[in-house]
Amino acid sequence: MSESPPTMYAVASSGRLKLLMERTGTGESVTSRELAAAAGVAHGTIGALMSGAQQSVPEDKAKAIVGALGVDLLVLFIPMERAGRAFVPAQSQGEAV
């Protein structure tokens, strides 16, 4: 029996990620390297999410990132699949978010 692929989560906006890094749930700021270390993800992943080069991560990474920021999952991320349909966030369509 094969496992289904993990749900992917898209960043609502790279600007929101930057804002949350400037003021985390504790009121402190965090650098991309500090966030990566605290979340247990590659520094390149955080940098790519911030720049928009990468728009989504698997659920476990999304939860680790928001856990390190001290915010709820849906404050920063949008599930990309709902009811079997792929969700494409507005920022990936070239629209401002």
Structural topology:
Elements: E1 8-11, H1 14-22, H2 32-39, H3 43-51, E2 56-58, H4 59-69, H5 73-76, E3 77-79, E4 81-82, E5 85-86
Antiparallel strand pairs: 1-2, 1-3, 4-5
Helix pairs in contact: 2-3, 2-4
Name the features.
single chain, 97 residues, alpha+beta, three-stranded antiparallel sheet, two-stranded antiparallel sheet, 5 strands, globular, disordered C terminus
Ends apart, CA distance between termini: 40 Å
| Shape annotation | globular
Order of the strands making up the biggest sheet: 2-1-3
Instruction: Output the helix-strand order.
Output: EHHHEHHEEE
Helix amount: 40-55%
Written description of the protein model:
With 97 residues, this protein is of the alpha+beta class. 42% of the residues lie in helices and 14% in strands. The chain has helices at 14-22, 32-39, 43-51, 59-69, 73-76, and strands at 8-11, 56-58, 77-79, 81-82, 85-86. The longest helix has 11 residues, at 59-69. The radius of gyration is 13 Å and the shape is globular. The protein starts with 7 loop residues before the first strand and ends in an 11-residue tail after the last strand.
